[in-house]
Each structure stands twice: as C-alpha cells, then as structure tokens.
Request: fold
Amino acid sequence: MELAGRWCDLDMLLTRQGNLVGPGFEPDPALREFLQEDCRILCVGAGGLGCELLKDLALSGFGNIDVIDMDTIDVSNLNRQFLFRMKDVGKPKAEVAAERVMARVAGVKVTPHFCRIEEKPIEFYSEFHVIILGLDSLEARRYMNQVACSFVEFDAAGSPDPSTIKPMVDGGTEGFKGHARVILPGFTPCFDCTLWLFPPQTKFPLCTLAETPRSAAHCIEYAHLIQWDRERSGEEFDADSDEHMKWVYEKALVRAKEYGIPGVTFQHTQGVVKNIIPAIASTNAIVAAACTLEALKIITMCSTGMNNYMMYVGTDGVYTHTAAYEKDPACQMCSPGVPFEVRPDMTLSQVIEALKADPQLGRQLNEPSISYGATNLYMRGVLEQATRDNLEKTIGELVGGDGSVIQVNDRKLLAPLRVKLRFPAESADANGMVH
Amino acid sequence: MIKLFSVKEKQKKEAASANGAKGVKQSAGELRLQKDMSELNLSKGTTINFPEGKDKLLIFDITLRPQEGIYKGGVFNFSFNISTSYPHDAPKVKCKTKVYHPNIDLEGNICLNILREDWKPVLSINSVIYGLEYLFLDPNPEDPLNKEAAAMLSNNARQFESSVQASIHRGAYIDGNYFPPCK
Reply:
C-alpha cells in the first residue's frame, strides 16, 4: 500500500532550490520519477551493511534495486541482519532480503542475485547507474573497483569522459569503526589509489607460535597453521567446517594448558581463525545511511557530494572526519592509458622500438616488458625465453584491436605504464593524413 | 561531478560499444606480479619455474642452490602461491625439500619475518627470494621453528654443519628424522 505523503520529505529535497545543491541541479518533480522508475542501483552484499542499505535505499525512493550476495543466512546473523528471521536460516540472503523489502515498501522492485560477484559478466554491472557496496573483504572491494574502473573512457588528453563513469559508493564497518566513500573512477581516487589505507592484518611470527606462545591467540594460530599440516597433512583446512574448527579449538586448548595460558574458547578460536571482529548494528546503520545519502546525491544532485572519504569512530562518543584523498596518477586501475599510435602490421619488436623512440614515453623506458591483460607478450628476465617468439608477431594479432590497453613495465618506472594502442583508420585518406 | 539524469541515454549507448577492446580480465595482484617478474634478478644458482605457463604468474617454484655456507651443495625447492590480493597480502611460501634448518619445520613452514609479521606491499618477490637465500647463508637459532636444529647450531656449530652436509650429500637421520639427500 502506498502511504499518503510517503515521499514528501524526498520531494522537499528534489523540488526546491537551495544553497547547498549540487552543480547543475534543477528542481524538478521528474527527478523522483526518474529515481523510482528508471534509475537502477546495485547493492553488493546483503549482510549487516546490506540489510541496512536495502532498507535505506527503498525508503529513499530508489524503485529498482538489484542485490547480489553469495551467502546463505546463518543463525549468528539474526541479531543485526534484521530482514532475516529464524525460519530463514539456510536460505540465500539476497533472495530473502529482496522479498522482505518488497513486502514492506510498496512499489519497490528488488531483484536478487544469489551468486558470486565474479560470476556475473561485465555487461551485468554496466546496466546500473550507481553501485553501492556493503562488503566485508578487501578482495571483493578490489574486484568491484576493477569492474567500476573498467568502464571509464579517456579522451586523447587523458581526461575521463563523464558519461562513462560508473559511480560507486563504498561502506565498511569493523566493530565501532566505519567508513563511507564515494568513488567516481577517473575523477576521484579509486580503491587501488589508496590501498595503503588498509592496515595489514596482525600476524604473529611462526617461531613465536612454535616456541614462545604468550596468548590464547598464539595457541590457536599454532594449532591452525602448524599442527593442522602436521597431523592432517594433505587435507585442506575449511574455516566453515564445524569439525575442523572444533579440532583446532581442542588442540589449542591442550597447548594453552601446557603453557598455562588462559582464554582459549571455541568462540575465540573462530574469531582468531576467521579474523572476526564483532559486528555492531549501530555502526552498520550509520555507515549505510551515509552511503545511501551519497547515492541519492549522485543521482539527483540535490546536494553537493561527499569529497571523498568519511570515517566514523564510535568507540568514545561519536567522531567523524571527512577527508579528500588524492588520486594516484600512476594507478593501474583508474589512470588513463597514454594514447599511442601504431599500425596493426608492426611487429611487437617494432612497437617496443617505437615506444622507446617516443620523445615523451621513451625517456621513461630502458628495457620495457609488455603485457596485454593477463597475457605476457614480452617479458625481460626470467620469462624472456618463454615470450621471445612474440617479438616477431604483429601487434594486430597479439592484442584485441584499436583501443587495446597494454601494460608496459620497466625498471625505470615506479608503476606499470598503461598505453592505449590506437590503430589508424583502415585507409588513410587522399592527403595521406592519419588522425 | 556528473549529472546522471541528463546523460543516462548517452551512457546506455556507450556501454554497448565500450566493452569491445578490453584485455583479458586480471586481478590487481597479477598486474603487480607482471612488474615483479619483469624485474626479477636471480642470484647464481637460483632458478624459477612456472608450472602453468608464462601467463599464470600466481603459482611458481623457486629452486635455491646455496653457493657458500653450511648448506652449500644442496638443492632446495620452494613453492610460491600468490593470492589475488597481492601485494596487500604476503606470498605464501613453503619449502618442498625436507631440510634440517632451525627456521624451517618438517612440514615446510618457514619462519621468515617478511613472509608474515613484517610483510609490506613495497616488498617484492625479489625481496622474498633474497630473504630465503639469506636464511640459508645465516640460519638464525634465536627464532627456531625446529628447536632441535636450533639447539645443535647454538651448542655445536661444527656438528650442525657436518650433519647438514651429510644429509645433503648422502641423506641422514638427525634427531630421529630422516632427511633424504638433496644435491
């Protein structure tokens, strides 16, 4: 049932001019129509953050939401993943979440995708206007970042074409801490530009684990990393197997007794092995709200967007700070490929010589290696022999065609150089002009 | 900033054509490995092998042949397993050769700081290989993973050296474990 006045708050934002509106904003009732009818948003993850995001998006007027998640519901999710009930345990999160949101918010269409993000073709992601992330791993974030960055196109001067940008809003929480950030690939720093932001996981030296354990975590890691291989060699440890976890717990308990260390419990074992930090429902709610607001602003321009990273710390009161992180000009994911003109019938060897002879690029190159995607075309050093044969092949047969981006590695370069190969138009015109 | 509302039609059209000329999908970890590999400098006696071919860089084997020191004459194999989140995560390295060494246990676990607690993304495959080579030149009894080996090295370095050499060349039982020859 559509409640009368349900959208009056949204209309306040979308139908009035103001001092804080985003660039180019024009009040228009059609904005809400666009949001509800045409706009498509993808929510990646239907867990702690995902449930909050889906609820917030639906209540903020987004009418076509897709949600993707590979997980099924576990009983330990129920305290904070409020779209799920006891009877849902074992069912796919994406499907149950979609059903619940549609039952509660009239007019919203939520399409679930119960699969891994890697299983979807790139075309799937290209259909969305905005992608919003509620993920819990660095790896999945980097994958989505790669997807978003792969859409952006650059002009000859290296400026991104605004119409090719796939905006992405990323939320993340860990206990009482959280962040929200906006990524406009090509314009603002992408995930890989600021990878250094992520602290490495704490790891203990193996010899400490083996010889001088001082904490419960040391005993658990010893059982997990060393005893498992020794006593169950050949068997892959599976953190989701109860039997495996119990085995590690029992071994850790014996070791802890030996050294007089207290504190080894089954729960702590799970925490250490799976690197679990307790999830706090209110952190998820705060971060999801910030992310949803950014998605709304990107779509409607009803207010200036966040620039570009907000952190939240809830351990002592409420602390937030917004900072503008900077792009890494040499980022492998979002920096423009330097355009470089070649003829498809040039051999790879000739292309390498042409790169070295180029007045701009040549200065940075000494002994370049060339890769195209995952294919190593010509590598110096240990793979020289394996790739040497490609030197005499034509670039036309080695790469995908005009606009292919190759990576150039060289000792002189700090990071790989992306070069976008341009093939001149098939037939040069009468003046012999090549564009 | 962009106003999607006005560009949505253009975006639809371009999305269709934009995906034509892209290379094979690869992870950021693989991209970084390409750089590492193009700059790899192997010392004398060290070799590398890619069992899955030149385009699958995430899995490879390194063979060390120490040219001097206690382990001179031995041939030691290591398996490298690189995750797609490299270089955020350290390479996973195991010693495939059974060796009597204070910092390597009988399952092939290696106690090398840069493989665990001191790993940093600025380090590379080259740094790890140097680290391993160093471990064979200068085994460290202070941080033992095989504590019998560490104790023997501290208490009687000459006996340690002759035990290691015997195991490398002829195979030997040390502390009740058999170490097959590896030369």
About this structure: The first strand of chain B starts at residue 47 and ends at 49.
